[in-house]
Hints:
The protein has helices at about 50-60, 110-120, 135-150, 160-165, 180-190, 200-210, 235-240, 260-275, 295-305, 320-330, 345-350, 365, 380-395, 395-410, 415-435; strands at about 25-30, 65-70, 80-85, 90-95, 130-135, 155, 195, 215-220, 245-250, 280-285, 310-315, 330-335, 355-360, 375. It is built from 15 helices and 14 strands. The chain folds into two domains: about 25-220 and about 420-435, 3-Layer(aba) Sandwich (Rossmann fold), CATH 3.40.50; about 235-410, Rossmann fold (3-Layer(aba) Sandwich). Helix 9 links the parallel strand 10 and strand 11 (about 310-315). The protein is α/β, with parallel strands linked by helices. The chain binds uridine-5'-diphosphate (UDP). The site of uridine-5'-diphosphate has 20 residues, from helix 1, helix 10 and helix 11. One of its GO terms (biological process) is mycothiol biosynthetic process. Keywords: Glycosyltransferase, Magnesium, Metal-binding, Transferase. Catalyzes the transfer of a N-acetyl-glucosamine moiety to 1D-myo-inositol 3-phosphate to produce 1D-myo-inositol 2-acetamido-2-deoxy-glucopyranoside 3-phosphate in the mycothiol biosynthesis pathway.
Amino acid sequence: MHRSVRAESRSTIHYPGAMTGGLRPRRIALISVHTSPLAQAGTGDAGGMNVYVWQTATRLAKRGVEVEIFTRATSSSDAPTEQAAPGVTVHHVPAGPFDGLDKHDLPGQLCAFSANVLRAEAAQEPGYYDLIHSHYWLSGQVGWLARDRWGVPLVHTAHTLAAVKNASLADGDTAEPKLRVIGEQQVVDEADLLVVNTPTEASELVDLYGADPARVDVVVPGADLERYSPGDRLAARARVGLRPDDVVVTFVGRIQPLKAPDVLLRAMAPLIRSDAAGRLRLLVVGGASGNGAGLPEALVDLAAGLGVSAGVTFLPPQAPADLADVYRASDLVAVPSYSESFGLVALEAQACGVPVIAANVGGLGVAVADGVSGVLVDGHDIEAWTARLAALLADPARLRSMGTQAAIHARAFSWDHTTDALLGSYERAMAAYRRGAGRQTGLFGLRRRRTRPRVTI
Ligand code: UDP
């Protein structure tokens, strides 16, 4: 997946590949304003980005790069600074009250957050950080200021893009605000290098935000292949609380309209109702997204309304070790999202030897090998999903052989590859910055970069 320099067919897409022995950062500031990599993923604001930040930070540290992560303090018990792993420090930055703030309130706290990041750096010797990597647009805003102050390159990963999400909203979902679209646009214009998950995301940045293709690197995310590997299905079922002969379709992720768990539930309902033996089961793992806490009540009510409560099991967010058992216990994992910049759950399930049925959107087309390790479904028509699910569930031999292929497919993706490719991107950003490209983006109006088409808001 991680090609060494550029995609052959699309000269505009950069695959940075591994380090080439050039400028390696000694220490980087990694900014993740709205969510801590130490948070349990699968609920609230914690998901794939947290996993990405943690997995790459710990691997960067193993490669000799010191990583300091800045995230907002959200609890009085957060130590200001914590050594979270060898070579990885987490700074809990005061910016607004610990709780009661929604992600949408955080733009109002960016000044406080940035000021405290700048103060932390000012207490160190000059040249303390070699590079900044910001995650999500809120962090990009902080990174932009710090980059200009410190004179080091800013690498930015958006993780999700408002313009993309707004173009494929679920029924009843709220559009991302103008404020975010404008903020993302500014970060795209200002970052020295933009790292994206897939070629699709690279095109979206170029087409919708007018990003300069020469400043976009594709670095494909990975799975923790030590944690997520095939294992004893029956033992996993016993640990998860499933019967040996259950037929299990599983959803894993934050319960939010974007992830379309309701589409899956509606599509599964006729199959569950017509399963006289009562073996077919939908397992839903995860908590409410955003500030919603506890069980996803709307989904519980929907199951009751559809008359399938007995066939649906809800589990709270699971730690990775337990999640591996959830995947292993499943016959099929479903990722019906309306939009997905990559879809780590799809990859992790396959790494456990379980095939995936996924919506044909965003990065899922890369994460799933259609017809080999799983199937991709166009659109969100309930009957179409029911038909695809029914066909797969009626053919256990095909499911098993796709599961075998899934484990092989997933082995091409690992966080080690991702980290090596990221280091390649850092090297590229630092070299370009030293050559002077970055300095044109310096503080106090040294430049105004190109005029490019702006994203429509
Ligand atoms: N996750 C978890 N426990 C859960 C549910 C999810 O640890 O109960 C993790 C999962 O392993 C995956 C991440 O949350 O790594 C979700 O990432 P994905 O890319 O699928 O979705 P996102 O949250 O980024 O939209």
